[in-house]
TrEMBL record:
HAMAP family: Dephospho_CoA_kinase (MF_00376). NCBIfam families: dephospho-CoA kinase (TIGR00152). CDD domains: DPCK (cd02022), PPAT_CoAS (cd02164). The gene is COASY. GO terms for biological process: coenzyme A biosynthetic process. Pathway: Cofactor biosynthesis; coenzyme A biosynthesis; CoA from (R)-pantothenate: step 4/5; Cofactor biosynthesis; coenzyme A biosynthesis; CoA from (R)-pantothenate: step 5/5. Keywords: ATP-binding, Coenzyme A biosynthesis, Cytoplasm, Kinase, Mitochondrion, Multifunctional enzyme, Nucleotide-binding, Nucleotidyltransferase, Phosphoprotein, Signal, Transferase. It is found in: Cytoplasm; Mitochondrion matrix. Monomer. This is Bifunctional coenzyme A synthase. Pfam families: CoaE, CTP_transf_like. It comes from Sciurus vulgaris.
Length: 564
């Protein structure tokens, strides 16, 4: 069976009957399409009449909005699919609607196959229904020249359907914040301009519900606020957030795909209200269950400034059926970021100059991140661990390779009476003094690097496959040039401060000063291959390290097997 990168699914069954069939239809489509699946709603359309079918407006009702939410929720089972429900033909009850475009709509990923749920018992290649389907698809959207067509019926057939009646209304997922009772067939009102906001990190199906409802309500312009800067600080694992420009790029492509007739104003959201708090031309705001209180606060702010309240539309959260114990129960970007922990983020470095058959990891992280505990967990799994602090102690010792150069550079007053270097005195001399610090690091870092190379040879002699260099200053020292991968441990700065205060007895100010003298978690992650975090219970950290280790074993070159 051929598999296509992009496809167009034309749904023709009336929505009340379609909802119970949706899961098997999506499963059938997911077997044929492996990347982008566009969905076009045309309930009641026949593909068996001799005349070429035309796209006709679909009245936007709460049933339609609920169905779209239901479809995106169902698509969560198919992680590989980027599902996009096209909204051009879905129209609200409004007097200022633009006419349906007669031109073909361009799509970011032109479909290679068109699929339909239309029920016909003749599934042959020459079925006129398939020809009508292809004509219909190409009259509406830009498709690949060699467009294939597939009739999904009866593959999703009746055997998979639930026993309950097929006209049970969908659960309500969209609620207008007004005393007016909503019913499934109630038309949705259209507005000139409205707004929606979010982080939109790794655009997922819950985001798509929020955006789709906003696009249906808006007739002329939609303002989309994308959280940035200070609003990102409280996010879980902010170091793994996509950059603002990347989030905007993915978001813009999705929006233009689903409703190109709208004007989109995508702006950075730098405070909790954004344009919803001050823009007099806005008429509605789409919020989630979680951000509803923020919408109410924005309305209070508007009233205080003599602006009309916005109509609020609240969207239910989409449940994540596959969430783990420490993850959120809803579909969320933070769950996606947590699942990135332990995974390879960029290709490993080739290091032919390193000992043959030894795979070297550089482990780093801000002070208090739990880096050393991760090193011990890796040691427990079979890694050879090189502690750069321990190498530093060896280098400073009277017989060590750095002793004489350091004493010559900083004088004998940094020595104890017994001739050993007093690291506290030396530290006070260089801390906060960039020139003095550079003198010290220019001596120490090459010496520690040389000692680390010697330790690598010892790891090979012991028959080890994986070697871990545990070093807080790994990147500052340029030691990423002698490892295959950089692994970074991250935690929020507030948690790092708390741990440093508790562990080292420093004041909060002193702990913050220490962190500010180091590279930030974000700077470390930007150069890392794998990211880990000790933010959760120890058993969660252990599972995370085991996952990273198991993935590492799969990608390590197997050359070490021939070493003997």
């Amino acid at each position: 069976m051929a598999v296509f990168r992009s496809g167009l699914l034309v749904l023709t069954t009336p929505l009340a009957s379609l909802a119970p069939r949706l899961a098997p239809i999506l499963t059938s489509a997911a077997r044929l399409v492996n990347h982008t699946l566009y969905v076009h709603l045309q309930p009641g359309m026949s593909l068996e009449s001799p005349a070429q079918p035309q796209s006709s407006p679909v009245q936007a009702t709460f049933e339609v909005l609920d169905f779209i939410a239901h479809l995106y929720a169902g698509a969560n089972c198919h992680k590989h699919l980027d599902v996009r429900v096209l909204l051009t033909n879905i129209q609200t009850k409004s007097t200022f609607l633009p006419p349906l475009p007669s031109s073909v709509q361009n799509l970011a990923h032109p479909p290679e196959v068109v699929l339909t749920d239309f029920q016909t018992l003749d599934g042959s290649q020459y079925n006129p229904v398939k020809q009508q389907l292809e004509r219909y698809a190409t009259s509406c959207y830009s498709c690949c020249p060699q467009l294939s067509s597939v009739l999904l019926y009866p593959d999703y057939g009746t055997g998979m359907l639930p026993v309950e009646p097929l006209d049970v209304p969908l659960s309500s997922t969209i609620r207008p914040a007004s005393p007016v009772a909503r019913s499934p067939k109630q038309p949705v009102r259209g507005y000139h301009r409205g707004a929606v906001g979010g982080t939109f990190d790794r655009l997922h199906n819950a985001h798509k519900v929020l955006l789709s409802v906003a696009c249906i309500l808006a007739q002329e312009q939609l303002v989309v606020g994308v959280a940035d800067k200070d609003l990102l600080k409280s996010k879980l694992l902010p170091e793994l957030l996509q950059p603002y420009a990347e989030r905007v790029e993915h978001l813009s492509e999705f929006l233009v795909d689903i409703k190109p007739s709208l004007t989109f104003d995508v702006i950075p959201l730098l405070d909790p209200y954004g344009p919803a708090g001050f823009d007099p031309s806005l008429e509605f705001l789409v919020v989630s269950e979680e951000t509803y209180r923020g919408g109410m606060a924005a309305n209070r702010f508007r009233l205080e400034n003599d602006l009309e309240e916005l109509a609020l539309y609240q969207i239910q959260l989409v449940k994540d059926e596959s969430h783990k114990e420490h993850e959120e129960e809803k579909v969320s970007s933070s769950n996606f970021r947590q699942r990135m922990l332990g995974k390879l983020l960029r290709p490993p470095n080739k290091r032919p100059e390193l000992p043959s058959g030894l795979y070297v990891l550089g482990l780093t992280g801000i002070s208090g991140s739990g880096k050393s505990s991760i090193a011990q967990r890796l040691k427990g799994l079979g890694a050879f661990v090189i502690d750069s602090d321990h190498l530093g102690h060896r280098a400073y010792a009277p017989s060590g390779p750095a002793y004489q150069p350091v004493v010559e550079a900083f004088g004998t007053d940094i020595l104890h009476k017994d001739g050993i270097i007093n690291r506290k005195v030396l530290g006070s001399r260089v801390f906060g003094n960039k020139k003095q610090m550079k003198i010290l690091t220019d001596i120490m870092w090459p010496v520690i690097a040389k000692l680390a190379r010697e330790e690598m040879d010892r790891a090979v002699a012991e028959g080890k496959d994986v070697c871990v260099i545990d070093a807080a200053m790994l990147l500052e020292a340029g030691w990423q040039n002698m490892v295959h991968e950089v692994w970074t441990v991250v935690i929020p700065e507030t948690e790092a401060v708390r741990r440093i205060v508790e562990r080292d007895g420093l004041s909060e100010a002193a702990a913050q000063s220490r962190l500010q003298s180091q590279m930030s978690g974000q700077q470390l992650v930007d150069q890392s291959h794998v990211v880990l975090s000790t933010l959760w219970e120890p058993h969660v950290t252990q599972l995370q390290v085991e996952k990273a280790w198991n993935l590492l074993q799969k990608r390590i070159p197997k050359i070490h097997h021939a070493r003997d």
